[in-house]
Amino acid sequence: MVVLVLMAGEWSDLTNRIKIVGTTLLSDSWARLDKISFDYLRSNGQWQRQDREVYNRGDGAAILLYNLEQRTVVLIKQFRLPVYLDDDDGFLIEVPAGVLEHDNPAQTIRSETQQETGYQVSEICKLFSAYVSPGSITERIHYYHASYTADQRIGEGGGLDSEGEDIEVMEVAFDDAMKWISTGQIQDAKTILLLQHAALTLFNV
Known about the structure:
Layout: H1 8-11, E1 18-28, E2 32-41, E3 47-56, E4 60-67, E5 72-79, H2 81-85, E6 91-94, E7 97-99, H3 105-117, E8 125-131, E9 140-147, E10 168-173, H4 174-183, H5 189-201
Parallel strand pairs: 4-9
Antiparallel strand pairs: 1-2, 2-3, 4-5, 4-7, 5-6, 5-10, 8-9
Helix pairs in contact: 4-5
């Protein structure tokens, strides 16, 4: 296998391979959708004009709540219209998550966790960040996990009515949650990432 290593000085030259030609606003409702034209310098030295639609909805944060003693995790179930339109019932099992507020992932995920699940967590651990669908969406999710106990649940959860949320809170055996990935009961990517990370680092699966 051949590995190409770029020296520090060569990385700066990569920015010269992109020239933005124009941006057309397609929608600016719930989030911003732009059509962007740009010239791209290909590896063979030739310039190529390309057009892409880019969806700007802001970054997000997601968290897996786990209890090692009980071998359980807290998940949620909620309706997702795009999933429904893609020939499914529209209800996904997920981890708590939300769009960043004030560009603060930790504060956001604490708030979202309480709103969606009723659990109030203080000690959270940042794991990694990853782009969701870099071919068309700017969103990057910041991933966390945190241990929980029953006495940390100070409310019912369920989300905010004002945002159209109607969330079911689920405490699930970790082994069942892992099986649900294989059976298709869990199809949400951020949830699969966090469960698999937990299998490798927390539950010794």
